[in-house]
Amino acid sequence: MKKNLQNYLNILWIATRLGFTSFGGPIAHLGYFHEEYVRRKKWLDEKSYADLVALCQFLPGPASSQVGIGIGMIRGGILGGIFAFIGFTLPSVIVLMLFALALHQFSFYDASFIHGLKIVAVAVVAHAIMGMGTKLAPDLSRKAIALIALIIMVAWQSTLTQVAIILMAALIGLLFFKKKDTTESTFTSLVLSKKTGLFSILLFFLFLLILPIFSQLTNWQWLAMFDSFYRSGALVFGGGHVVLPLLEQEFVPTGWLTEQEFLAGYGAAQAVPGPLFTFAAYLGTVINGIPGGLLATFSIFLPAFLLIIGALPFWHALRHVKAIQGALIAVNAAVVGILIAAFYQPIWTSTITSGKDFILAVILFSLLAFWKLPSWIIVIIGLIGGMLLPYLPS
C-alpha cells in the first residue's frame, strides 16, 4: 500500500513539474515528455513512447495530454492516469481561471519573458526530434517515409492531411516492414482490462449521443455547457489550435461571452504552460465563475480520458502482432516527419524572428543536448533570456 502511494505521488509530482514548465504547445509537450519519461526516468522505452504517440495521433482530442495520461496509466493504472492528468493540467487551469476573474485588470500575455519561453520550446522540440529521428528512422527507407510525410504536411497543412499520412504509412508498413523490427519493448504490463476498455468506449459514444438530446429537452445551462465542451473535446483531431474555432462557434454566437473576451483568453492561453485545451477553464469561468471553469475543464478532457482508457488494452495486444508491428514501424517514421513539419510551422516560424532569437535558441539547445542540463534549468535560462532580448542590439 505504501509503495503504491509513493508511486502515485511520484507520478503526480513529475506531472505537476511538467505542468509548470511545459510551454510551447502539443509538439513541445511531446518533447518534454520524451525528455522526462523516456530519457531521464526510463518509465518506458523509445519504441513504447513512439507507439503511444502514434496511438494518440489516431484518437480525437488533445494528443499530448492523452500521451501524458497514457504514461500515467502504464505506470499506475487508471488512478495513475488521473494523477498524471491532474498534475499536468492543473497549473494552467488555475492561471487561466484567475485570469478570467481578473480579466479587466491584468494583461500578462504580451510580456517579453513569454517570447523566451517560446524559444525554450524550440530548443526542447529540436532536441526531442533529433533523438526520436535517430531511433525511429535509422535506415534510408524509414528516412524516406519521414521525408515524404514532412513534405506533404508542410505543403498541405490540415488535420485530414495528418490522418491521411498516418494511414498511408500504416499501409506501407503492413506491406513492407513486417520483419524489420526485432527490438523488445518494456511496455509489457498493463492493469487495464479489455472489459474496462469496452465500457469506456461505450461511455464515450453514449455521452456523445445523449448529451445533445437532453440539453435540448431541459434547456438547462449547466447541461448545455457540459454538452458543448464535451462535443468540442470529442470531435476534434489535431489538438488545441483546432478546437478553438469549435469553441468560438459554441459560445460567441450564443452570447455566452463576447468576441473580445474570447480573444483575450486565447492570448492568455498561449502564455501559460500545459495543454491548450485548458482554455476551456477560462471560458467556463467567464460564463459561470469558478464552478463553470471546473465543469468546462472536466467536460472537454473527459472524451480524451475515455478514449485512452478504451484504446490502451487493445493497443497493447495488437502492437505485438507482426503485421501491426510493421505498420507501427512505418507510422513511427511518418510521425517523425509530422513532428518536424509542426516544428517548422508554427513553432519555428512564429518564434525565431531575428538573429537574437536564433542565438538564444542555439545556446539553449546546446545546454540541453551537449551539457545535459535538465529542462527546468533551460526554462529558467530561457525566461531570463527572453526578458533580456529587447535590450540587446539588433
TrEMBL record:
InterPro entries: Chr_Tranpt_l_chain (IPR014047), Chromate_transpt (IPR003370)
Protein family according to the UniProt entry: Belongs to the chromate ion transporter (CHR) (TC 2.A.51) family.
Principal location: membrane
Cellular component aspect of the GO annotation: plasma membrane
Name of this chain's protein: ChrA protein
The entry's keywords: Cell membrane, Membrane, Transmembrane, Transmembrane helix
Lipid bilayer topology: Multi-pass membrane protein
Top-rank taxon, per record: Bacteria
Lineage of the species this protein comes from: Bacteria, Bacillati, Bacillota, Bacilli, Bacillales
Molecular function terms from GO: chromate transmembrane transporter activity
Residues that span the membrane, as ranges: 12-33, 78-101, 113-132, 144-177, 197-217, 229-247, 293-315, 327-347, 359-392
